[in-house]
Amino acid sequence: MEGSLHHAQRSTLAAAAYYGWKNTLGFIAHPAVAMNADPYALKIAHIGTGTSLWLLDLQQFLTKRLGTLPPTINLDFYDIDASTTPSSAWLPSNVLIKQLPLFDSEGPPNLHNHYDLIHLSNLAPYIKDNNPDQLVRNVFSML
After folding, report:
1. Roughly how many angstroms between the first and final C-alpha of the chain, as a whole number?
2. Average confidence (pLDDT) over 26-53
3. Taking the complete model, does pTM exceed 0.85, yes or no?
């Protein structure tokens, strides 16, 4: 694959960056982020990265906090290219992997005002012409 890193190399670099970030900051979601919604009915999206590490860590954190991960909690993972994500067979049933073109459209109307928390990762390389406006509009519409 001339001009790009091999899939395994990209995944390894993404994992190293994630764990470096997590270990340096000491949290998965910033403590100032208020989870005002019912913790048993949270709707959380992770957009980017490809490895799903943040979402899987959050799933483990919520499981420890609540004693179990209720099926009423939605943990959705979106990426431009879902080929780097883990197999859905390895994930809990309430963790969904979806492809989402956040830069090319107004975003799916069915996701407007849908999520309580959205985590963004490693999207800078995909921003066109140094203009993140479409991405920002689409993400905010999902909250």
Report:
1. 37
2. 79
3. no
